[in-house]
């Protein structure tokens, strides 16, 4: 059976913008966040406190945070790679953070310049530090299905890492299909393995990139398995800068269209959201790849 409501976790300002080479002004990013909130978004990842040498687009994290003043019911999250990033995030008033690790050695090296084991060790004090400040930590796992260099990923490996993140205190776990290769049966197998490893299904989120056009089908499989939180980017923005051949996140519009069609509540107003994506596309200079955003714009 399907849930009656789903939490959309909007990653457009972070995952969506991080690989855009033309720098988006801080004021535009702040306006993007405000518009997303007025469209009904209540979980929003706004930026990351990573090395500005690695992600120049998000080097303005402090200034952006200073411009944001979301309502109390907005869960505003920032991505953090290490203790230095945690310090910056806390100083900027972060209410929740997200850490990120990979199932594969190649991607751990390319994305964090370390090994899988070291990435987990590095995450531990970050999660503990956030917890000591009374804020939650989302744990992202990249390459949960396949990796461009290492191929198919064993669901058991994802389950081990998810259990380790949950054990160190992550309050939710986002399972990333970084390169969009998952298919629904594979999603079910990974979810079954992660839940069997003791991670509660209500703490799991699905993070599907739409490279092979499977993201909505994958969400549907995850919904049936009991997952109620999904990561999407307005207009389908984004790709991972360190994983070749990737395209954007599942578009928020595409997911909202499907969920509303299924009678599942999201709290999101599709027209306001599509206006926001269109407005943002004007700022980044290329049109939205979202089928729903395109159809609603033409209608
Ligand atoms: P490194 O080069 O090994 O580390 O990078 P380092 O300690 O030598 O640091 C390099 C420079 O950055 C130094 O500056 C540090 O001080 C500085 P320098 O001495 O050369 O002037 N530095 C920092 N500056 C500001 N804030 C910090 C910070 N840390 C170091 N927090 C490091 C290691 C982890 C820093 C680097 O690899 C990094 O920043 N990686 C982030 C990469 C990233 O953001 N990737 C995209 C996000 S993950 C993603 O998109 C996947 C996801 O969506 C899920 C999915 O789809 O799978 C979440
Ligand atoms: Mg991603």
TrEMBL record:
It comes from Rhodococcus koreensis. This is Hydroxymethylglutaryl-CoA lyase. GO terms for molecular function: hydroxymethylglutaryl-CoA lyase activity; metal ion binding. Belongs to the HMG-CoA lyase family. CDD domains: DRE_TIM_HMGL. InterPro entries: Aldolase_TIM, HMGL, PYR_CT. Keywords: Lyase, Metal-binding. Transmembrane segments: none annotated. It comes from the Bacteria.
């Amino acid at each position: 059976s399907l849930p009656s409501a789903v939490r959309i976790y909007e990653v457009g300002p972070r995952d969506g913008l991080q690989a855009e080479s033309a720098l988006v002004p801080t004021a535009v990013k702040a306006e993007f966040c405000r518009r997303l909130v007025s469209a009904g978004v209540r979980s929003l990842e706004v930026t990351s406190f990573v090395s500005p040498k690695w992600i120049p687009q998000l080097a303005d994290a402090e200034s952006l945070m200073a411009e944001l003043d979301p309502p109390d019911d907005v869960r505003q999250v920032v991505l953090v790679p290490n203790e230095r990033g945690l310090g910056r995030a806390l100083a900027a008033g972060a209410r929740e953070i997200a850490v990120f690790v990979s199932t594969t050695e190649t991607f751990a090296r390319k994305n964090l310049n370390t090994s899988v084991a070291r990435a987990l060790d590095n995450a531990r004090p970050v999660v503990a530090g956030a917890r000591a400040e009374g804020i939650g930590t989302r744990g992202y796992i990249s390459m949960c299905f396949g990796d461009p260099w290492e191929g198919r990923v064993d669901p058991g490996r994802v389950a081990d890492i998810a259990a380790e993140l949950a054990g160190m205190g992550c309050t939710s776990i986002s399972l990333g299909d970084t390169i969009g290769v998952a298919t629904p049966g594979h999603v079910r197998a990974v979810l079954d393995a992660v839940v069997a490893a003791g991670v509660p299904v209500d703490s799991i989120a699905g993070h599907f990139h739409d490279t092979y056009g499977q993201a909505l089908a994958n969400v549907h499989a995850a919904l049936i398995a009991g997952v109620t939180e999904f990561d999407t980017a307005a207009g389908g923005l984004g790709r991972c800068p360190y994983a070749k051949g990737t395209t954007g996140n599942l578009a928020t519009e595409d997911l909202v269209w499907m969920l509303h069609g299924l009678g599942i509540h999201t709290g999101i107003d599709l027209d306001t959201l599509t206006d926001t994506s269109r407005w943002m596309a004007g700022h980044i200079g290329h049109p939205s790849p979202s089928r729903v955003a395109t159809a609603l714009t033409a209608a």
